[in-house]
Specification:
Blueprint lengths: L1 H9 L2 E9 L2 H17 L3 H4 E3 L6 E11 H10 L9 E11 L7 E6 L3 H15 L14 E7 L6 H9 L4 E7 L1 E8 L6 E9 L7
């Protein structure tokens, strides 16, 4: 991965995605739930590649490698999201893709705000398509990824813990911005840098 990042930097390529970042208070709440999950499933400490708290975000679209010369144009067309209204986000429950039995990706669910996130994802898709970015093949699914199993397989303790916490209360966040983010791949894990932040309609500030 380090080699991939070094090569990308040398050739002027940035690895980008568009997302809603998580508030610090919600990061702490997610960490509390993760600790609860690990108490019920201690093996998870070694079997899962967990997302670092400061990297937690809700992805609207992953762009992949983008030539540096195109980034300013990408950033400009994404201003389309600024016409969308701010909204509240409610995180509730734990789950897994494709399902708790045979999990590959562990996630926190979105209750209130899922439709608004879907709207933002659609605006991003519409804005980027003229620049040659293909649309996502699968329908948008609002969720917060918290970890990925290194070797997906069936873990009864994990399934039980997910089922027990399928409706656990995590918290609220007022969503007032969307970010274009660069992901730099490092041996210790990805480093995320905000390339540009977009304030949603009605929000005051830079």
């Amino acid at each position: 991965m380090a080699g991939e990042q070094a090569s990308g930097s040398a050739t002027g390529v940035l690895r980008l995605f568009v997302a809603v970042n998580l508030d610090p208070a919600l990061r702490s709440a997610v960490e509390d739930v993760r600790r609860r999950l690990l108490e019920a499933w201690p093996q998870g400490a070694q079997l899962v590649k967990w997302v670092e708290p400061h990297n937690l975000h809700l992805t609207l679209k992953f762009l992949g490698p983008v030539e540096a010369s195109r980034v300013s144009r990408v950033a400009e067309v994404l201003r389309a999201v600024e016409s969308s209204a701010p909204f509240d986000l409610h995180l509730v429950g734990l789950g897994a893709f494709p399902r708790p039995r045979g999990a590959r990706v562990l996630w926190v669910g979105v209750r209130e705000g899922s439709q608004e996130l879907g709207h933002l994802a659609q605006v991003v898709e519409d804005a980027l398509q003229p620049l040659g970015f293909g649309r996502e093949e699968r329908p948008f699914s609002a969720h917060l990824t918290i970890g990925r199993l290194r070797t997906p397989s069936y873990h009864p303790q994990l399934e039980a813990a997910l089922n027990q916490n399928s409706s656990v209360e995590i918290g609220f966040q007022h969503v007032h911005s969307v970010e274009l983010v660069q992901s730099s791949l490092r041996p210790a894990g990805p480093v995320y840098t905000v390339v540009r932040s977009y304030r949603l309609a009605g929000e005051v500030g830079s």
